[in-house]
Amino acid sequence: MANAQPTPILEVRDLCVEFDTMAGLVQGLRGVSFSVLPGETMALVGESGSGKSVTAQAIMGLIGLPGRISSGDILWKGQSLLTREGQKAAGKLRGKSVSMVFQDPMTSLNPLMTIGAHLVEVLRRHMGLSKDKAFARGVDLLDAVGITEPKRRMGQYPHEFSGGMRQRVMIALAIACEPELLIADEPTTALDVTIQAQVLDLLADLQKSMGLSIVLITHDLGIVAGLCEKVAVMYAGSIVEAGAAETVFAHAEHPYTQGLIRSTPRLDDRRARLVSIDGAPPSLLHPPKGCAFQSRCPVASRQCDEKPARQATPEGGTVTCWTPSVAAWAEPVDRQAEV
Amino acid sequence: MTDQSNRFATDHPVAPEMPILSVRGLGVTFDGERERPFGPPKKIQALENITFDLARGKTLGLVGESGSGKSTLGRAILRRLPISDGRVIFDGKDISNVKGEALRRLTRDIQLIFQDPYTSLNPRMKVLELIAEPLLVHGIVSSIEEARDQVGELMRLVNLPLDALDRFPHGFSGGQRQRIGIARALALKPRLIIADEPVSALDVSVRAQVVNLMQDLQQELGLTYVFIAHDLSVVRHISHDIAILHRGHMVEMADRDAIYEAPEHPYTKVLLSAVPEPDPALRRNGDCAPEAHRPPELNLAGPGCRYRDCCDKSGGHCQREAPPFARHGGGHWAACWHVSTD
């Protein structure tokens, strides 16, 4: 995927993460590969437990015991972050060149520190600015993320901010050191829709003005289209389909992607019934041998007992399925029409 | 009531002309901070002059942002909060002042489904105990074991496997836990269910499962729902009517297709445009973020429209006088000076 293209800023190769729990070895990630080019935005989409947050944590070096990266590689501009020298370099990268926005703005800020103190701490540590310079830069950053009266706000505590404002502060913190890659882990899940739209717009603006690469992690396909060029759909610890956002939405190949798109409610949909993907994802403690989606897949066959290989799609994406591009889901029965 | 499938159906005659729930001029006030020590607390008007009817077997979608008063309205109907003005009429009886045993009996008829299936179930209780608890509390059964059959029947209704009875909630996924919460709410054969953001904490693919289940149960048992949501994306599928709340006021109410296809209040339009469109081909171009929109602040001072400071149409009339919640043709109600009245 990466050859003949500019060096990706981030490349994840066949990454496996395991968690050694009391119940046994949980395979959190089972061979995840993707790459992000400079200035590119990519979405990692999946249900809870699909491994999307674990992927982000692995990139940020936040996998703690009992978890460990068992195989695969994470490359930053072609350099591995997992070798001994790489780990040293990674410590400097993380928080500076790669930064992260967490899901819950209510709990990710220290309630005993002012907003200003958060910003000054980051700027002094990573950028080596003096106290005064860091403060001035902090004011500019709050202004950049659309917080009014930034000077006064610097002296306030997180509880004086609303949810959307706190998420803006989190974004200001994340872009403080002018990162090249921003990982946003469900940045809008805890927010109201109107505020969500504003935060997504802010991310899109920053991406344009700073040339950021963004990895957006979400379970909601709805917010992907507005921000991201590429999409990777995760299921049970691996990527089942990846490609350009437009083509994935227009011609979803994998039955799971098709199901996800159809279960996303749409405003122009007059049907009284939503399409659902019945069942639940498999346990990663004993993942199935074959395709992980087969127990919920409407078009599963005997072939699916064996693990499907990743293959390229005509539109330039990849899909991991034995029978891609088959329309997997029947048209839902419309009760309204029946009556 | 020997018919198995109807064991939990409501056994009351259906009178389509009489709404099961009527809310008239409902107001709820909370005590805020005191301006000086021992002084009188500031009053915060959380809900003001809410009026609507809900027909039997139908669903009302209540939509609003955090702080709009949607959960407060749900709780006021359940009588979990003191009502300061107006009346709540359930099944023809004024329930705004009932107390004691009558209020206890009322909770059998009106039940609540909670938002977060991860924190609303006691982790130390087995599924059997969780679902049987309401039956025990209301003296319908005298022991948990006695309730086993009834609970099994409820499990069948919400499509949970019977072997789940003796397990603890931590072993279940979010969707399954929400089913447990629904079974618990159904145990007392309620007629009205207030679902307070029942799918907001769930994954998109699981949301559809729970919403579809709620629709099936409504058909099978003749339930009436008040379905509270913070955005307009899921409510269309389950609701018959949708009401939009803003700063404790109802700003628009209409049948579901009218809200989506002919919204009248500017706030409804903002809410609609804020729902992200998944299909890049259909995505609106750039205008999706309601730039000027600010989060609601309670106690906006002075008379006038409560939406005036967020509204780009706001004129002199909006500053001076609050628009009435008036009917604009058909069943469409809105509180705005800028829509034409019949």
Concise overview:
The complex is a heterodimer of chains A (339) and B (342). By secondary structure, chain A is an alpha/beta fold.
Q: How many H/I helices of chain B?
A: 10
Number of strands of chain A: 12
Mean pLDDT of chain A: 86
- Choose one word for the global shape of chain A: globular
Helical content class of chain A = 25-40%
* CATH-level-4 superfamily name of the largest domain in chain A: P-loop containing nucleotide triphosphate hydrolases
Structural class of chain A: alpha/beta
What features would you highlight for this structure?
heterodimer; A: alpha/beta; Rossmann fold; 2 domains; 8-stranded mixed beta sheet; 4-stranded antiparallel beta sheet; 12 strands; about 30% helix; globular; disordered C terminus; B: about 350 residues; alpha/beta; disordered N terminus
Summarize the structure in words.
- Chain A has helices at residues 52-59, 84-93, 115-127, 131-144, 150-154, 163-175, 193-210, 224-227, 245-250, 255-263, 335-338; strands at 10-21, 24-36, 41-45, 67-76, 79-80, 98-101, 181-185, 213-218, 230-235, 238-244, 310-312, 318-320.
- The longest helix of chain A has 18 residues, at 193-210.
- In chain A, a hairpin with a 2-residue loop joins β4 and β5.
- With 339 residues, chain A is of the alpha/beta class.
- Residues 334-339 of chain A have low confidence and may be disordered.
- In chain B, 27% of the residues lie in helices and 21% in strands.
- Chain B is of the alpha/beta class and 342 residues long.
- Chain B has an eight-stranded mixed sheet, sandwiched between helices. A four-stranded antiparallel sheet of chain B has the order 2-1-4-5, with helices on one face.
- The model of chain B is unreliable at 1-15 and 284-292 (pLDDT under 50).
- In chain B, a hairpin with a 2-residue loop joins β4 (85-90) and β5.
- At the A-B interface, α7, α8, α9 and α10 of A face α5, α6 and α9 of B.
